[in-house]
Write a structure and sequence with these properties.
alpha/beta, Rossmann fold, 10 helices, 5 strands
C-alpha cells in the first residue's frame, strides 16, 4: 500500500482557500474540511460539546439544543480571550479526528490527503503534516469578499484583524497560491501544486 502524503491547506479568511480546495478535489485529492470536522466535534454527541457549553453557557444554543455558530462567532471574534478559550477546547479534538480520517483514507488506498483548515499554523497542527500549501490574496480583496458574504465592512475588518498575519503562514509554506488574479490563474497554480504533490508522493511510495 502506498504511503499517504498528508498535506495541509490553509490561508487567511476569504483568501480563496475553499476555491483551491475545490480545484484540488477535482484533480483527485481527498480533501478533509476541518470546518466540517469542527462542526462534528461540537455537535451534541461530539467530544467538545460539553466543554464549550461549560465555558460559554447555554445562551449559545439554538432551539434544537445545538450550538448556534453565528452566536458563538459573534462572541469570540469580539473577544480575543474568548477565541483563545474556544480554540483550546476545540482544536485538540479536531486534530485527533482529522488524523483518524487521514488514516482511514490511507487504509483505502488514497495517495494524497489534504486537510483544509484555517488555523493549521496557529495551532501547530501543520507540523503533523508532510507539506503545507498556503493560499493568500491582498487584504482589500479579502474585505470585499467578506462584504459580499453579508458582513459589514467593519465586521469584515474585525474578522481580518483577529487573524494572525498571513506572513506567519507564508514563512512555513512549502507551496504558495495567490488568488488575487483570475480564476484561471488560480487554477494553473493549483494544477502546478498538485503535480508536484503527486511527484512527492510517488517518491515516498
Amino acid at each position: 500500500m502506498p504511503v499517504i502524503l498528508r498535506v495541509g491547506l490553509t490561508g487567511g479568511i476569504a483568501a480563496g482557500k475553499s476555491t483551491v480546495a475545490g480545484l484540488l478535489t477535482q484533480l483527485g485529492a481527498a480533501v478533509i474540511d476541518a470546518d466540517t470536522v469542527a462542526h462534528d466535534v461540537v455537535s451534541p454527541q461530539g467530544p467538545a460539546f460539553d466543554a464549550v457549553i461549560a465555558r460559554f453557557g447555554r445562551r449559545i444554543l439554538d432551539a434544537d439544543g445545538h450550538i448556534d455558530r453565528s452566536i458563538l462567532g459573534g462572541i469570540v471574534f469580539a473577544d480575543p480571550g474568548a477565541l483563545e478559550d474556544l480554540n483550546a477546547i476545540v482544536h485538540p479534538c479536531v486534530r485527533a479526528e482529522a488524523a483518524a480520517r487521514m488514516s482511514e483514507l490511507e487504509s483505502v488506498g488514497f495517495g494524497v490527503a489534504v486537510l483544509d483548515a484555517a488555523l493549521l499554523v496557529e495551532t501547530g497542527m501543520y507540523r503533523d503534516l508532510d507539506r503545507l500549501v498556503v493560499v493568500r490574496c491582498d487584504p482589500q480583496s479579502q474585505i470585499r469578499r467578506l462584504v459580499l458574504r453579508g458582513l459589514t465592512r467593519r465586521e469584515a475588518e474585525m474578522r481580518l484583524a483577529a487573524q494572525a498575519p498571513i506572513e506567519r503562514k507564508v514563512a512555513v509554506a512549502d507551496y504558495l497560491i495567490d488568488t488575487s488574479g483570475s480564476l484561471d490563474d488560480t487554477r494553473r497554480d493549483a494544477d502546478r501544486v498538485w503535480r508536484e504533490l503527486l511527484a512527492d508522493q510517488e517518491r515516498r511510495g
